[in-house]
Amino acid sequence: MKCDQLIKIAIVFGLGTIACRSVTPLPPPSFPAARDSTEQESPVDFDRAQLQSVLAFLSSDLLEGRAPGTRGGSTAELYLQSLFQWMGLQPGHGARFLQPLPLKAIQLDEATLEASGIQLALGPDLMGSFVSPERFFAVQGPAVFVGFGIQADRWNWDDFKGADLKGKFLIARVNDPGTIYPEIFEGKTLTYYGRWTYHLEEAARRGAVGMLLIHTDESAGYGWDVVQNSWEGESLYLPEDLDNGLKFRGWIREAAFRKLMVAAKQDPDGLLRAAQQKTFKPVDLGFGIRISGKSRFREVTASNVVAEIPGRSKQRIVLSAHIDHLGMKPGAGEDRIYNGAIDNASAVAALVMTARLLQQHQKELFYTVTVLACQAEEAGLLGSEYFVKTADRENLIAAINFEATPVWKRAKSLMGIGAEYSTLDDTLQTVATQLGVGTSRFSLVNQGLFYRSDQFSFARYGIPALWISAGEDDLSGERPYTRFWSSNYHTVRDEYDPQWDLGALRQTIQAAVLMVQDLNRTKARPSWKYPVPFPMEKQPIP
Ligand SMILES: [Zn+2]
Question: What is the pTM of this model?
Answer without folding.
Answer: 0.88
